[in-house]
Amino acid sequence: MTFGEKIAEKRKLKGWSQEQFSDILGVSRQAVSKWETGEAYPDTEKIIKISVLFDVSTDYLLKDYCDSEEATPGVMAVRKTELHTAKIIAGFLCALFGVIILGVINVFAEIDDQNVSHGIGGYYTPPFISFIRNFGLEWLVVIGALMIIGGVIYSLVCFIKKRQAVSSKTKAVKPERQARRK
Q1: What phi-psi label fits residue 117: left (phi over 0), alpha (psi between -120 and 50 degrees) or beta?
Q2: Where is 83: in which H helix or E strand?
Q3: 162 and which of 41, 84, 154, 181 could share a cystine (Cβ 3.0–4.6 Å)?
Q4: Are residues 127 and 176 in the same domain?
């Protein structure tokens, strides 16, 4: 969508005529008509005011390839960072669930240890190992351990990707700031 198509669409969604919109902005109706047909563009001050009125970014208004507010580069970068954060949390929750599984097994093993002798062939077997062997819970221990290892690794990988995304974003912003200072 072009700039003109976007402001026409947003204006109509608000229920404003070109006349009403022009009064709000302090310009003529003809100016609004020219903007909407692509014959002219408003000045920077008006573009900012339009973005505030429609609650959209100036990127969305000015970049033809941004068909929705969600497609603007700034919003996409924020969404990507939020997604990395959610993935980090999911990884740690997975690891936490693995710890809970193993912890519950250990608690039951301690309870069972009070009621059972664990000597096998004259050797002492720890209650945890004896319990999982007696009840065939080896598979559950493996799942718990994999959840811990997998969750921690997944969280670390997502954390590294998030750091890389943030650092590349700040590197891209630095040249712009330096150019503005000159």
Answers
A1: beta
A2: helix 73-113
A3: 84
A4: yes
State how far the alpha carbon of 144 is from the alpha carbons of 112, 137, 153, 154, in Å. 20, 11, 14, 15
Say what the pTM is: 0.51
Angle at 84 between CA 81 and CA 87, to 5 degrees: 155
User: Of 51, 69, 87, which one is at a domain's C-terminal end?
Assistant: 69
Contact predicate 23/4, CB 8 Å: no
Phi, then psi, of 120 in degrees rounded to 5:
-120, 110
CA distance 4 to 13: 14
Question: In sequence order, what E strands does 15-149 have?
Answer: 119-120, 123-124
69, 98, 113: which is the final residue of a domain?
69
Contact 27, 46 (CB under 8 A): yes
Q: pLDDT tens digit string along 47-73?
A: 999 988 888 888 788 887 666 565 555
Residue range(s) defining the domain that contains residue 145: 73-181
Measured CA to CA, the distance from residue 166 to residue 76 in angstroms comes to 12
Map residue 26 onto helix, strand or coil.
coil
